[in-house]
Structure formats: structure tokens, C-alpha cells
Amino acid sequence: MATFPNSFLWGGAIAANQVEGAFNQDGKGLSTSDMLPNGILSPHQALSERTDGIKDVAIDFYRRYPEDIALFNEMGFNCLRLSIAWTRIFPNGDEQEPNEAGLAYYDKIFDELAKYDITPFVTLSHYEMPFALAENYGGWADRKLIDYFERYARTVFERYKDKVKLWLTFNEINMSLHAPFTGVGLPEEASEQAIYQAIHHQLIANAKAVNLCHSIIPDGQIGNMLLGALNYPYTCNPDDVIAAMHENNKWLFFGDVQARGKYPGYMLRYFRENGIKIEMEEGDLEIIASASVDFVSFSYYASGCASADPKQKEVGNIVDSVPNPYLEKSQWGWLIDPKGLRVLLNFLYDRYQKPLFIVENGLGARDEVNEKGEILDDYRIAYLNDHLVQAREAVLDGVELMGFTSWGPIDLVANSTAEMSKRYGYIYVDRHDDGSGTLERKRKKSFFWYQEVIRTNGASLKE
Known about the structure:
Elements: E1 9-13, H1 16-19, H2 61-75, E2 79-83, H3 86-89, H4 100-115, E3 119-125, H5 131-137, H6 144-160, E4 166-170, H7 180-184, H8 192-216, E5 221-227, E6 231-233, H9 238-260, H10 265-273, H11 284-289, E7 295-299, E8 304-306, E9 328-329, E10 335-336, H12 338-352, E11 356-360, H13 378-396, E12 401-407, E13 427-429, E14 441-443, H14 445-455
Parallel strand pairs: 1-2, 1-12, 2-3, 3-4, 4-5, 5-7, 6-8, 7-11, 11-12
Antiparallel strand pairs: 9-10, 13-14
Helix pairs in contact: 6-8, 12-13
GO molecular function, one term: 6-phospho-beta-glucosidase activity
InterPro entries: GH (IPR017853), GH_1_N_CS (IPR033132), Glyco_hydro_1 (IPR001360), Glyco_hydro_1_AS (IPR018120)
GO cellular component, one term: cytosol
């Protein structure tokens, strides 16, 4: 088989806080991301006076979405993963009534996608939440956020039930362990006890959203999303194998709760041995057990290694790991491991026996416009080609794969560092790290490559 299933969803993935801009317009409140306008690597800025940042305009998708969606259609997309900015719907998070201007905006987005038969695939919370909830309630540390998120989910499910059938709850939910302000609205120095308690509240909210989606949109599907942080043992030393098992369990925990409906034994042991006591109310575990997701989605950019020797660890972009001597690195130091995607797909499918969806994968690189006005990003083509070949191998292995939405089909602001120079797109945006540029869109060489991949349903990929 040289192609993917006939029902395969091809497209790209974007996030509201990295493309929209218009951070304070049409009734929108400030989000935690808006309080870090120059990247999540400076979290303490959120506790001081807000400064202007590159995310405030981003790539102006808020106004330019018809042009951008037309370009996605030209590539052949039949799916676009995007997020709703929670603060466009409930500016402070705890209002009784939603902001109609925000709801109407996403109506326009979904109607524009429908013009081209592009399936919207919507994330409810993509690395942002109302800042007022973090400031006034301490973020997800407060159980009240379960009700606020449930109200938000119910509002958008009821509003868009005829327009959106594919949903995700929280983007890369396991990243709260590494960036707690971004994930759960807690200070970066928060204790493990506080982080896991907040995560418990978020997992209950996830379960309630799953059940709401199933009741309000009977023909809809809702999944979870993991950062697919696959770790290999650094050596065949059994201590390294166990170290890799522990590292993988840190993120698989989130998938186990959302797909299997219960706290796994290895996590209960970790809590016992580290003095972590999760406060639960009666019925919490029953709510979690009642709400298994329909599919498991994940991002995959790089694999890592784990070693029992702490001296082997290397500082990375948010997540630290042991470098793999058999792999090359990207310009940003991320290990390039296409075969790891096949391993991960088989690993997750064996574990959950649920359909899988690759909702983020791509290469961040510095793209240059040559004297002819071209962007010849052959390195991006090679990266994506090799990963898609391995995804196809996983399908041949028997993995049920729903689709592939590469990260950043159009250049956008990097979440971690707020750089424009770290480009992922098939579409170049004339904007730079200092905020200069015309915002003009330009097709890269990879635009036409991906167009052909979609047209042939993967048959054009090169082994």
C-alpha cells in the first residue's frame, strides 16, 4: 500500500494565541499567553507589568483568515486544527454569559472553512486560559475552574454543534509538569504537590467536557492530546531501561487517565513515595471513569533518551533529556528521529487500541528568501517526507491513524520563545523577531510539495 486510508485527514495545525493577534479586541480578555507576549521562557513577566510583545499582532490571522484559509484550500487541506481562545468567549473566565462578539468570530471562521469543505478540528484550551482565573483563583489549583471550563465547553459545543464535529480538550496536557504557568496557571516554582492537584482538577474538567460533547454532539468525536515525549533507554543497562520506563510514565499517565478512565498504579506509587496527596471529592473517580476519549492525538517532534546517570542529561527547550548519539539535530537543537514516530504510533496503539491522530509534527528552521523571491526549504520537505513515510509504515503495521495536521502550515509566533525566525510553515509570513515586516504571505517550495502529497494521498512520498 503506497497511500494512506481514503478517509485520511490532511492539513495543518495552528493555535489562536500564536496566529490571531487582536489580543484585546472585540471584548477579548487577557489570557495567560497574552501575559507572556515574548515567550513562555520568561514566566515571571506575568507577575509584573505587562509589556508589548510580538504575540499582540502575531500574524494577524484575526483579520487575514480568509486569505490564509484560501491558501490552505489551495494546498488541498481537508482538515484544519485550530483553537478557540477561551478569553474571546469568557474574557475573565468566570462570567455567567459569554461574549457574543467572540462567538460570532469563530462562526465566521467555521463558515469560511465550510466554503472549502475543510473539516475544523478544534482545541478548547491551547496553552492559554483567562489570566483572571490565574490571578484571582490561583489557576487550576482551585476546583472552581472545573465548573468554569465546563460552562465554556458547553457554550461552544451548543453554539457550534452543527459546524464542528472534531474536538480536543487540552493541548499537550502533560506539559503542565514542565511549564505550569502555561499549562495550569500556577507559578513556575510551584511544588509537585500543587501541580498534580491542579492536574487532577483539569482531568476532571476533561472528563466533563468529553461527556458534554457526547451528549450535545452525538455525531461528534472528542480526543485528548499528549506531547509524545518518547524516551529510549540510553543503553541496554537495565537501570537505563527502567529510567526510560519512568520517564515515559510521566506523560503516559495523562493518556492512561483520559483513555482508560483511572489513575494507573505506577502513578499512585509515585504519589505515595513522594509524599503527594491528591485531594479528591466523592465522585471524582467515577466522573473520570465515565469519560473515555474517542481517540488519542499527540504531537511528535523529537525523541529523547533516558539514563540512570543524572550527569548524562542535557538541557533542552522546556524538556530536558539525554542526547542520542545516533541522531542529527535541528537548528534549534531538537533531535530528528522519523523512525521514532513509527515506534510511538505502534506503542500508543498497542496501549490504548483507539484511533490515533498526529496533530503536530514539523521542522522549525530559519528560512531565507533568495534573490528570486523564492524560499527553497528542502530541509523541511525532507523532514516531513521522512516522518510521513514512517507514519505510513505504522499504518501498514496495523495502526488505525485518522490524520496528520503538521504544525504551523503558515509561519507563526513560536510559543516558547516568541520568535518568528523559527519558521514551520509552507507559507512564509513577512514578519520578523523585532515585529517588523509587511505580513505578506508567500508560498515556499514545501507548499507545492505538500500539495502533491495530499493530492496523491501520500503516494508521492519518497522512501
